[in-house]
Amino acid sequence: MRAIFWINGWLVRLLIVLAILVIVAMTLGISAEVILRIFGFPSIVGLIELTEYGLFISTFFAAPYLLRHNEHIRVDILMSRADKETARVVEFGVLLCIVTISVITGFVATVVMIGNIQNNTLIFKDLIFPQWWLDWIIPLTCVSLTLQAFELMATLWTSHTPVSHEPAEHVPGIQREEMP
């Protein structure tokens, strides 16, 4: 199991690098589009469409990294008020929900992807390409999210360290002495 978690760790790192590269490419493309328009040149065909796909890709590729580094959306104010054992149970429950949602979403996305491959489904916009070129992203990231959640659950199960639920020190306007 440790080897699977190690491989998933490298997959998570690869996905975040790809997400960053996609965001950089979108930024450069949009900047080039603006410069071209300023000087009266025609627009780059398909750039808006590629940017939409880039947002989709970067969002899904970044999700496992955010979970791995505990940067996912959570309600820390509730966790900071709970006792340590309750916080552990809630954290375990949240990770179980992540596993459940990832497995269901990954299964449905895989079924849809296989159907699109079998039917040779194409996307017709400015660019024309097979639908599965986008479909594979969701099952891959769902597998990575599931493995990441299992790794965090295993760590939580074997650790005697309380769940980290530091007060929101990074929130402007909230002082440390105002936190519970």
Summed up:
Belongs to the TRAP transporter small permease family. The protein is 70% helix and 3% strand.
Features:
single chain; 180 residues; mainly alpha; globular
Describe the overall structure:
This protein is mainly alpha-helical and 180 residues long. The chain has one domain. Helices cover 70% and strands 3% of the residues. It is built from six helices and two strands; from the N terminus they run ααααββαα. A two-stranded antiparallel sheet has the order 1-2. The protein is globular and about 65 Å long. Residues 167-173 have low confidence and may be disordered. Keywords: Cell inner membrane, Cell membrane, Membrane, Transmembrane, Transmembrane helix, Transport.
Q: Work out the strand percent.
A: under 5%
Radius of gyration: 21 Å
**Gross morphology:** globular
Helix/strand order, N-terminal first? HHHHEEHH
In the sheet with the most strands, the strands line up as 1-2
- The figure for the number of domains is 1
State the share of residues found in helices, binned by percent: over 70%
Q: Name the poorly predicted regions.
A: 167-173
The class by helix and strand makeup works out as mainly alpha
N-to-C span: 39 Å
How many E-type strands? 2
Average predicted confidence as pLDDT = 86
Main sheet makeup = 2 strands, antiparallel
- H/I helix tally: 6
Keywords: Cell inner membrane, Cell membrane, Membrane, Transmembrane, Transmembrane helix, Transport
InterPro entries: DctQ (IPR055348), TRAP_DctQ (IPR007387)
Domain Tripartite ATP-independent periplasmic transporters DctQ component: 26-157
Family: Belongs to the TRAP transporter small permease family.
